[in-house]
Design brief:
Elements: H1 25-37, H2 41-71, H3 78-126, H4 130-135, H5 138-180, H6 182-188, H7 191-229, H8 231-236, H9 240-266, H10 268-292, H11 298-339, E1 361-369, E2 375-384, E3 389-393, H12 400-406, E4 415-420, E5 423-424, H13 430-435, E6 437-441, H14 451-456, H15 464-473, H16 477-481, H17 500-514, E7 518-522, H18 530-544, E8 548-552, E9 564-569, E10 572-577, H19 579-585, H20 588-601
Helix pairs in contact: 1-11, 2-3, 2-5, 2-11, 3-5, 5-6, 5-7, 5-11, 6-10, 7-9, 7-10, 7-11, 10-11, 15-17, 17-18
């Protein structure tokens, strides 16, 4: 590919709901084991030892039935009876402690796996492109980080414990049964192949229902996120009933799918009961004949029946595990699908840190297309000299904010190049590029943290003096100290406890603290009233001093003093010059400025 060209948003950044063919169960299990289970092999080994002890204790208890039935009441000494009772108690104690230890170990491993998966997913999402977040609702992503990973944890813990411990129990108990009577064992175990076939069929349905259920839960979380964020507008437009109807539709879908899944899973129980009942009936009939012929004892028959009944519980658990396993695999598939989504904006293999003293920005013959092929920028050329201010103005949709997004490489240009101090932005590391930038936009990004924490977000390890100095430079210190807890006041989600002007000045203080040589202002005052705008503009003028600044402005009166004004329309640069020069041309800029002036004069 030519270095002057770059792909736009790739297909893998489209919605995660566009799923391909489901992956095989073995492929998912292998990846889950290699990526997350294998590092805990030592813990699994220790748990397996305790499981084996518990399984052996269960088989020993079944074996004890024979002497208990045959010899108790037969005049045995009291010491013999006491010893037998003590041995039974010891078996129960060993079983209990072994179960305790393997349960604790397995749950710890399961929780560690969940933690590791969530951390991997979060780190992966932090590296994703903006296009990824534009294509996937936040609620859906949150559902994958919480609900899907939780299902994986349950599946890992339950499946490994139930299947491994249950398998060991079956091995010990079946071994005991064949030791006692191999013919009777063969007659009893015709149920196993039938149960296995039935369970396999149920698993196919469970996987499908679980996948669809988890997708619906993701949609539900996404709806809630949107409604809660837009609650002001929901109430203003009286849309409570409409939003409730939407949520009701999704939750009813979850209900229907969950019930279908329960039906499929529950089918395993009656089938296992019937087949086991048939096997026990056959054992009783055959065993009674054997006892009558003197070929075995009543105690041996009871011991055999006890072994089979005790084996019945792990059989049921293993049958149930299949449903949990399929739910876990469906969740794992969705988790791995997210982790497999590769970012389009990455460092080149030979990328180096940005090391320049000239922080001029040059946009050369830049073309940008969105993923759907629509043209946003058409051969744009703009130069922003070091330490100067260039304003981008024009009608909505002209491409102004797109340029702001291209400079820090939130997206990559389709054609052309953007350079910093003569260095192509694609030739340097993303971290070093973005370290030289500070962004203040109309949509002020404040976190549900203290005022201090939001300002300090601009610089790691900032001191209290630096934070206060930045607030003072942004004309924010006075109103911050007037807040209930001053700099320790929580601003609420998205800064809802502050006014628009206060939020913007905190964002400017954050940019002040960052002290980056390149400043990007994306309509930072367009949503403010006149009084707030004047305060913010004063802070912005101080922030711009000595910095290479690119301003996207809606109100043209705020950029009349810019060193250069670039007028854009339909993705192209149509005029460039100072305010006076552009007014003299009497073209688009002059018309826009005149319209805004008339509007201001006409205000009551």
């Amino acid at each position: 590919m030519n270095l002057s060209q770059s792909t736009t948003v790739p297909s893998q950044n489209l919605s995660l709901l566009q799923r391909g063919k489901p992956k095989s169960s073995w492929a998912l299990i292998r990846r889950l084991f290699q990526g997350y289970l294998q590092p805990h092999f030592g813990g699994f080994a220790a748990a397996a030892v305790f499981m084996a002890v518990a399984a052996a204790a269960t088989a020993a208890l079944a074996y004890m039935i024979k002497p208990i039935v045959n010899e108790l009441g037969q005049g045995r000494p009291h010491s013999y009876v006491l010893g037998m009772a003590g041995l039974v108690l010891a078996i129960f104690a060993v079983n209990g402690f072994a179960t305790y230890f393997h349960t604790v170990i397995m749950n710890r491993i399961g929780q560690r796996i969940v933690t590791n998966v969530q951390q991997s997913m979060h780190r992966h999402l932090l590296g994703a492109d903006l296009s990824f977040f534009h294509a996937n609702a936040s609620g859906t992503l949150i559902s994958r980080l919480t609900n899907d990973v939780g299902i994986m944890r349950q599946a890992v813990g339950e499946c490994l414990t139930s299947s491994f411990k249950g398998g060991l129990k079956l091995v010990f108990l079946i071994g005991l049964m064949f030791y006692q009577d191999w013919k009777l064992s063969c007659a009893a175990f015709f149920v196993f192949p039938l149960s296995a076939l039935f369970v396999a069929q149920i698993g196919k349905h469970m996987r499908r229902y679980s996948t669809r259920t988890q997708e619906s839960i993701g949609q539900f979380a996404s709806m809630l996120s949107q409604v809660f964020q837009g609650m002001r507008h929901v109430k203003a437009y009286g849309m409570e009933d409409v939003e409730h109807a939407r949520v009701k539709g999704v939750t009813e879908s979850v209900f229907t799918l969950a019930v279908k899944g329960y039906h499929a899973s529950a089918l395993a129980n009656p089938m296992a009961e019937i087949l086991s009942g048939l096997a026990i009936a056959a054992v009783i009939l055959y065993g009674d004949k054997q006892v009558g012929m003197g070929l075995t004892t009543t105690g041996a028959l009871f011991s055999f029946l006890t072994s089979f009944i005790l084996a019945y519980d792990p059989m049921k658990r293993i049958a149930k595990v299949n449903g949990q396993l399929q739910s876990g695999l469906a969740a794992a598939e969705r988790v791995f699908q997210l982790l497999d989504t590769k970012p389009a904006i990455v460092d080149k293999p030979d990328a180096k840190p940005l090391a320049v003293s000239d922080f001029s920005v040059a946009i050369r013959d830049v073309v940008f297309r969105y993923a759907d092929g629509s043209l946003a920028l058409d051969h744009v050329n703009i130069t922003v000299p070091h330490g100067k201010t260039v304003a981008l103005v024009g009608p909505s949709g002209a491409g102004k904010s797109t340029i702001i997004n291209l400079i820090p490489r939130f997206y990559d240009v389709t054609e052309g190049r953007i350079s910093i101090g003569g260095t192509d932005a694609r030739d340097v590391t993303l971290s070093s590029l973005r370290e030289q930038l500070a962004l203040v936009s109309q949509e002020t990004a404040l976190f549900d943290d203290t005022v201090r924490g939001n300002i300090a977000y601009g610089k790691r390890g900032a001191t209290e003096a630096e934070i206060v100095a930045a607030a003072e430079s942004a004309f924010a210190d006075a109103f911050i100290r007037a807040l209930p807890q001053g700099y320790d006041t929580l601003v609420g989600e998205h800064g809802v406890k502050l006014s628009g002007g206060q939020r913007q000045r905190i964002a400017i203080a954050r940019a002040m603290l960052r002290n980056a040589p390149i400043l990007l202002l994306d309509e930072a005052t367009s949503a403010l009233d006149n009084e707030s705008e004047r305060a913010v503009q004063a802070a912005l003028r101080r922030l711009q001093q000595g910095r290479t600044t690119i301003v996207v402005a809606h109100r043209l009166s705020t950029v009349v003093d810019a060193d250069q004004i670039v007028v854009m329309d339909q993705g192209r640069v149509v005029e460039q010059g100072t305010h006076a020069e552009l007014m003299a041309l009497r073209q688009l800029y002059a018309r826009l400025y005149g319209m805004q002036a008339e509007f201001v004069e006409g205000e009551p």
